[in-house]
Amino acid sequence: MKEKNSATTASTLGRILATCSKQAKDYGSCVASKVHEIEKDLCLKQFLALKSCMQHTVKIMSPRPSSSQTSVGSGALSHAYIQHPSLRCNVPESRGLFYDDANRLLICVTSSQVFSWETATFNPDVSPSVDSIPEGPILSVRFSLDKKVIAVQRSDCEIQFFHRETKQTLTHKCRAGSESLLGFFWSDSPLCDLAVVKTSGMDLFACDSAMNLRLVETKKVNVNWYIYTHESRLVLLASGLQCKTITGFQLSTAGVVRLPKFEMTLASTESNSKPIISAGDVHLVTVYGRIYCVQVDMEAMLLHTYRFYRDAVVQQGSLPIYSSKLSVSVVDNLLLVHQIDAKVVIIYDLFVDSRAPVSAPLPLLWRGYQGSDTSPQAASKENESPESSTSSENIVMYEDAWTFLVPDLILDQTNKVLWRVHLDLEAISASSSDRTSLLEFLQRRKLEANKAKQLCLGIARALILERRPATQVTQAIDVLVTAYSYSVKAGIYKELKNGKTTATIPTNDGASPDNERGRASGSSIDEEEEEVEMNLPSGSADEQQESQLSSPAISPDELYKFVFASVEETMVDESDYLVAIITEFLRSISAEKLKVDLNIYVMTIRLLARSKRFAELSLFTTNKIIEPSKEVALQLLESGGQDPRVRKLGLDMLRQLSLHHEYISSLVQDGYYLEALRYAQKRKVTSVRSSLFLEAAFASNDMQHLAAILRVLSELIPGFKETSEYYTFHGLLNETSSSVAV
Amino acid sequence: MASMSSGDESLRLCVFDLRRGQTEGQELDKILFFHPPELDVSTQLSVTGLSEGLITFTRLFSPEAACEVIEAERHSHVFYEPEPDIWMVMGMLKEVHSLFVMFHGSVRALLEKEPTGGLTRAQLYPFITDYLSNLFVGKKHQLPNFRETTLSERGTVQMLTLSKDTSLEVQSLVQVLDSCGGNLRCHTMILFQDLLVSTTLSPNDTVNLFTFAVMRLTSQALSSDASSWSYLRKGTGSSEASSRSTSAPLGSDNMHSVIRPLQNDKWTKGKDGFLVTDIWGLETGGSPDSIIPAVWLQQTQERVYLLAYQYKSLTLLLLLSTTAILNGDLSVSDVKQQVIEQASLRIMKIEEKISRGWGGENAYHVKGYRYLVVDSGLEVSRASPSGKVATLAKESLLALNKLREEVDLEKSRAKRQERDLEICIRAKNNAWVITRVTRGKELYMALEKASDTLLDATDAVGRFSNRYCSGAFLMD
């Protein structure tokens, strides 16, 4: 047995090493070359590469049987990953790859053709549109915003425009010699349609349907380089010897706004007293609807952040740099700083004031397969397939040919593939210890709202099950309730607004709490699915599940169902603790003026009664912390089996709610026949049969009661003495005791 | 056994144990407390002898349960002479006993621990004297004015009605206070002025602690201390009696352990917001924890330390397990620190919120009605403000008194069973005095509109019941 095991291990290791041979060799040679001066982390780069490669291989080779899309790689040490399949753009005779961020087009050009792929949906099967253009050098390509015109920069003084329908062509040239063309971009501002950036400034043009360019305005600035992103509509023009003087314009739908000129921070050292900022050192970052600029200061090894306001540019603090090469991505409003040399990515959430990273630096992972067919067969089949030139052997993380595109794409120029960067929310959650901040973080996620929501529910459950201090759980609950309240107010939480079936949680992911959840939600699953279909546009099943939630907000009802109700059974002996937490939950709900499923009240009564906390039960009921309802009253009656005072609270509630029938039945059950009769008469309740009183009195064996009731009934109901009921009970009475006169 | 008679102007109150002094010449040993103490021994003996005789006599007719005017609680009985205002006296006797037990444990347990009865006497004398000194207004020992007490019920708490929001804030605070005691659950009680806001104690313990808090701890009790004390110093009877009674009948060896929890003017508010007293300060003197006030909880038969925190009108009582503190699992100063750190801000906010919504002393006045509602199950009562009750005509008050006596008699006859009662009396001044007792809830009411018919009056009661008692009192 033992031998067999070790043989398996050896062969596994062998296979891993075979797969990662390049990385292993690199690491080995690095260590070997520096063996005399070896110290910790000297060959960190090579080691991280090897480690990440080995992790991938292990993942691919030994998928867990229960693994679903979420569990692949959840054990691997990474918080961000790129995932198969990629978008392939390998066109024969390709002369270059470009990305048009305004239209989200990946563009591949040959000498006379332009291939363009839509990347917005990131569908690997999408076929490119092909346009023919005259031959010539291509420095950059951008489609107009209506995609009718293709603009191609031919040289540093010439841009050509091709109309895709009319095949019309237009050439725009700038004055040769005195100025050179740095680039151009299309704009949707009302003032202009096209901006051309030259060393002497920026020209803004209007362009009509006949492709006539009309110069609208010129912004005169000396420009060394510029950056622009369509999502921010912001262009930054760098000038000065060190290129650290920045002039910014926002070409938004509101018009062209000139931002205050500002200087970037740049440290100087003895060896480099006048460092120069290049375009690659500056990135525009759009998160949470705010625009930031991040700038590399290599001498200081810092990444400075600036936030743009309408009338000011404010430096926001700096992040440390661990690599001489750096790039950034934005995924789901998070800033991912790729430390390219170290082959790790650090995630920051600029929403919070703290500039501490969301989690520790870890490598970017490559994930092989999505979906449930992570079987080895499927893996090998994929490896064998001729198309699959990007199997794990060919992917080198952070290789030089990688280009980082705004906001979350990576273009691998070598393999001619496009990757999208994903976050592994589970891994981030798993590595975070401060759960309140983690919940806040997860509640801010939009891209994988459903996953974030599930994680939040899991965290809330875990906090309670681990019996964390009530203050800590309270904070967590407050975060969730506040986030929900906000998302309802902001109108993000649309799906749940109209329907009562608030639980739109898919029940097919294999995480263990689902069993409980399925039980708790019970029959409502079918309704949920109907609602999903009604609300959602077409899309693949997987996407539908992911996209059905636009917000990870958790309604109070869901919190009750998936957190409180699901932990109640396991925490039977911890009623006090649960009551403390539910009290805080109710306070949070009430503070936000939200409503909650009345079952939470029923549960609270059950818990208070179980721990015999009568005083509080009474306070909760009389002060309406527990809102009156029939269900609540019935629970009080049931829990009142142990304490007659609790039962009385239930009776009082029935009466207050005018639930005449239930009230009278309960009175009779408790032996208050006359009070019940009196009530029935006062409230003119006719639904209660007279036999109810008679039978109850007879069953109690108190013949005096029976006699009294017979008498009252015969006075109350005209002709009662003639009914068979009267005869029956009168007869019974006489049989049992002849001494009681009626 | 306690006996009280108020036949003539002065009041006699005696606590005696029938099991003691059985042999000739040892009769004095029966007496555990006698008031007034200056009464000669032979009179004391004759009073107790008469009481004993009455009790023994009535036992002949009802050997199982002693006659209804004897309040049985295991072996300690409360006996009183049936004179006017009986129900009131009864309430007082019950109350003083409950309070005594809360601070000292049961009299029986004390006697078992120390058979000579010296310690019991030493504790009883000052305790009851302090209690009486608090009740009596005027030079002579007179029972409290019936004008003030006709529409009130001893042995119940008065609750503050809170909005849902405030109530949730309060309950949240209760949870925070609870957590200040570490892993052990610590009971809490919160008062606003002299109204109960929240409690986690059983009804009995709540009533006892509430009574004590209203007497000595609430913001009003603290501020009124000065005035009542100045009276007591002027009054000759009680203050002399109390000083004498503590020393007179005792052996000196027990002196050091006598504590007088009901002593007036002994509580002050410390800088940190906690109330301090030196009443318990004499107990041992060792660790600072030993001078913390302590009480017995009936429900759990547990001795707990009593911490009182006050912010403006809000008084918070925290009860900490003495065993936990003696074991060193918990320290009082830590708990205090926790309360200040975790809860003081919330306490401030809640006080502010309640004060803002508080309708003042006439908050629970209902125009046209003078009422008392008692829920004996919850041991809660609510009544018209005393200032409004005082406006009732003497005839109405007398009729009300009569009515209450009647109900008490009826209740004691029914023993533990719940009775359904409805009595309407037309007083001499044509006022309607009405009571309705149903399923453990009692309503007493005076309606002084002379032109009303009985039908009008019962309608008025019905409206009141529906509006303010969620329809608990159905009228025929």
TrEMBL record, chain A:
Signal sequence segment: none
Short name of one Pfam family: RMC1_N
Region of interest: Disordered: 373-392, 502-551
Protein name: Mic1 domain-containing protein
One GO cellular component, as annotated: lysosomal membrane
Polar residues bias spans: 537-551
One annotated GO biological process: regulation of autophagy
Domain Mic1, first and last residues per copy: 529-717
Regulator of MON1-CCZ1 complex N-terminal domain segment(s): 97-208
InterPro entries given in the database record: RMC1, RMC1_C, RMC1_N, WD40_repeat_dom_sf
UniProtKB/TrEMBL annotation, chain B:
Listed GO biological process terms: vesicle-mediated transport
Name by which UniProt lists this protein: CCZ1/INTU/HSP4 first Longin domain-containing protein
Pfam families: Intu_longin_1 (PF19031)
Organism name: Brassica carinata (Ethiopian mustard)
Ranges of Low complexity composition bias in the record: 235-248
Domain CCZ1/INTU/HSP4 first Longin: 14-95
GO cellular component, one term: Mon1-Ccz1 complex
Positions of the UniProt region annotated as Disordered: 235-256
